Amino acid sequence: MAASRPNSFVAVPDVFVSVLSFLLVIIIVAALPLPHALASPNGLSEGANLLHSEILKDEAVARLIDLGKVSDTEEYLERTFQSPASVRAGNLIRLWMEDAGLLTWADQMGNVHGRHEGLNPSEKALLIGSHLDTVIDAGKFDGALGIISAVSALKVLKTRGMLGKLTRPVEVIAFSDEEGVRFQSTFLGSAAIAGVLPVSTLHVHDKSGVTVQGALRKNSIEITEQNLVQLKYDPDSVFGYIEVHIEQGPVLETVGLPLGLVKGIAGQTRLRVTVKGSQGHAGTVPMKMRQDPMAAAAEMIVFMESLCKQPQDYLSYDSQCTTSAVQSLAGSLVCTVGEISTWPSASNVIPGQVTFTVDVRAMDDLGREAIIYEMSNRMYHICDKRSVLCVIERKHDANGVACDPELSSKLKSAAYTALKRLSGENPGEVPVLMSGAGHDAMAMSHLTKVAMLFVRCRGGVSHSPAEHVSDDDVWASGMAVLSFLETLL
What we know:
Radius of gyration: 28 Å
Main location: endoplasmic reticulum
Largest sheet: 9 strands, mixed
Number of helices: 14
Strand content: 15-25%
Subcellular location: Endoplasmic reticulum
Number of domains: 2
């Protein structure tokens, strides 16, 4: 039998063919350019998920939901200064800050801090913050989004081993009070840090008679007027302050983009108006003989609405109130009565006293002052005409704030980079907006330069349970902070 002739090829087992095919695919893919959506700035490679959805989106959204459950009532979300829920929320935020690799502490005004010193602890620190308190019957994104987006971005740097390579310290601050619900004095937390909170504020009391100092003491925080002054940060130790916040308006939704830069914040004044009349029986006091503070208050409120809708019909022009100021008011002025109470508040009694709040906001500070002057004069006139006593108290003032151009430019670039990384496409120009709402950045502007980024919210609805930010927009906000922090590497 003739010897068998060897085949002209070598048989290769199927498993080897599969391995070779897989390696060939890997080589081909590696030779292709990375899509921009997955490209990492600064040449950094951070593994499989370069967009960090598991931290900036999934975990951030879960934390927003968890924080939204921390409330002083079961029926709705309410978390006011130094309430039990506020303290629990602060403790939860500290845990998340520590998870991100930050050193944490709470100061004597109840602010929660998380800080990493980076490579150069002596460098000026970048501060990032927003507030942990809420209004009554609140949504879960106002304030909380800015805190969680910052913490999430820093956690991404930690997971990449880059946190210690920051070229300056970075500190996240969850401010204890921005809304001013409990004590009718906004920015308790940030104003203390900025050094603009009057020491007399410690003795302001809430409706139950508890003072700011007393509320802190109930939570084992002892603060004196001297301690309050010492809370102020040294301006030479701070590089700047940035804040991410929901827009609380409809502009970003209208233009179809999740992020927008803030160029300035409207000034605001809060008034408390007390009207005192003659208390009496609802059925026995003749209409012509009544000194009814409720009727007077109603007339005053209707006048306020007319004044703020058509300021040009009421204001006189002089060196203080110019044509440009009035024109600015016509486009930005808003006035609101948000709270009203009566005493003794019974259906069959003419009240003896009515108290209501007035919130006045405008971009132009001189114009806002002119409105308050005109409003006060007319309100006193109404009270005189109706033979009731009227007292108008200014409870809060904050001038308009212009955001720092240089810091804003960097934040705008970070927002652009974030949107491009997430979409893989050129997102176009990042919108620039004005803020009609007050923010902690207003107080912090007395300490350092500030910049703000707005995040789209559904329908522009805020201060309501209907307040909503999509999961993808939460992701975009965290990615924007991350992109900004990457410029510090």
